[in-house]
């Protein structure tokens, strides 16, 4: 056994238990090796165990050298590179504005749809004329083309959307709105119906159309008035990805 630290003073060795503890890193290891070597020198090269002591010294030196090169388990864990947060994909980025175009065409011949101007008598000044028991082809165009609509509803009726084309500027969908089973609107009244569209990762579009449903016997009323190709909406999504704000509505 050898003392943890030693020094030469007045021809002898003095035990200093805190000498090595004041040294750090490589200096502490060199200090221990030097003390051990000096201890071997005092025992003398002629000692029967000098060869085994030399081997013990070399083994100690090698182990201390390895301990300097290999990091501790805690150090290795601490050296790991932290994972950077995942960046949202382009489809998940919120555009500043979303433009929505919705067109309706009565089937089977893509017939025009009309509205009439009611002035201030009802909640809105335009009334869209629709026929009960009919099918309407819905065409939706969204700008920019990076957004994605998942579902659409008109007056509580689900309208599945099928994607037809997509590029960076615009994406288009088509669907069928079926008014089978919808009751006709009484004379002198108007019916507000909710229109909504769910988007993937940017929120929900909601608006209200003022509609008058005519039954089959008064179908001729659906064929006069002001025809329109589509209704356009300029919408602003928000950071909460909830309900979009509608800046403008235009009948074209």
UniProtKB/TrEMBL annotation:
InterPro entries: CNRIP1 (IPR029204). Residues 1-21 are annotated as: Disordered. Signal peptide: none annotated. Residues 1-19 have a biased composition (Basic and acidic residues). Interacts with the cannabinoid receptor CNR1 (via C-terminus). Does not interact with cannabinoid receptor CNR2. Belongs to the CNRIP family. This is CB1 cannabinoid receptor-interacting protein 1. The gene is CNRIP1.
């Amino acid at each position: 056994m050898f003392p943890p630290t030693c020094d030469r003073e007045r021809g002898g060795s003095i035990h200093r238990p805190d000498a090595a503890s004041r040294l750090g890193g490589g200096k502490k290891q060199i200090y221990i090796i030097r003390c051990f070597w000096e201890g071997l020198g005092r025992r003398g090269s002629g000692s029967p165990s000098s060869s085994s002591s030399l081997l013990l010294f070399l083994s100690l030196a090698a182990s201390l050298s390895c301990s300097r090169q290999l990091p501790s388990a805690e150090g290795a864990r601490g050296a790991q590179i932290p994972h950077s947060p995942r960046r949202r994909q382009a489809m998940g980025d919120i555009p500043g504005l979303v433009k929505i175009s919705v067109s309706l065409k009565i089937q089977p011949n893509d017939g025009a749809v009309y509205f009439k101007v009611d002035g201030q008598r009802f909640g809105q000044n335009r009334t869209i004329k629709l026929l009960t028991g009919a099918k309407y082809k819905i065409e939706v165009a969204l700008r920019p083309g990076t957004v994605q609509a998942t579902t659409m509803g008109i007056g509580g009726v689900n309208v599945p959307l099928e994607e037809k084309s997509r590029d960076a500027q615009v994406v288009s969908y088509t669907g069928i709105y079926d008014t089978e089973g919808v009751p006709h609107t009484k004379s002198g009244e108007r019916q507000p119906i909710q229109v909504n569209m769910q988007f993937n990762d940017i929120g929900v579009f909601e608006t209200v159309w003022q509609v008058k449903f005519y039954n089959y016997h008064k179908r001729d009323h659906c064929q006069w008035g002001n025809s329109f190709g589509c209704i356009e909406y300029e919408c602003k999504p928000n950071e909460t990805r909830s309900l979009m704000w509608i800046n403008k509505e235009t009948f074209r």
